[in-house]
Amino acid sequence: MQDSNSLPQAPAVLNRLDRSECLRLLRCHQVGRLATTVDGGPMIFPVNYAMGGDAVAVRTDAGSGIDGSILRRVAFEVDHIDPEAHEGWSVVVRGVARDITDALDPPSAHTRALPLSPWAPGFKTTWIKILDPTITGRRLVVTTS
Predict the structure, then answer these.
(1) Model pTM score
(2) Which residue in 14, 40, 50, 123 has the most C-beta neighbors within 10 A?
(3) Percentage of the chain exceeding pLDDT 70
């Protein structure tokens, strides 16, 4: 039996996605992963999210590991993988997490009005938005000769 690592691979290219395509992909999904630091070590949380302009927003419970990321640098990723075709894409958002739960500015109020319904149980009363985001993306595509 052959090891899957020894099977011939179709040629592929890794393309950089422009910002507008990254934003389009972010707006088409509801679940991503938020990476932050908890108790001095890295931690990744699957979260439901919404887009407020070009910024990612999540809701969480007060006292969760995510709310410990306030005013710290975080990363967020959403992706799609096709294991049969060996293709996929990934969009990464990096920025500073800010608690906008009680913020009075119009962009924060607009973000809190977005339809964001977390799947996990709990009250999820804390709104966190990733500010000043750097957004990058890549797409892996199998090429045909």
Answers:
(1) 0.87
(2) 50
(3) 93
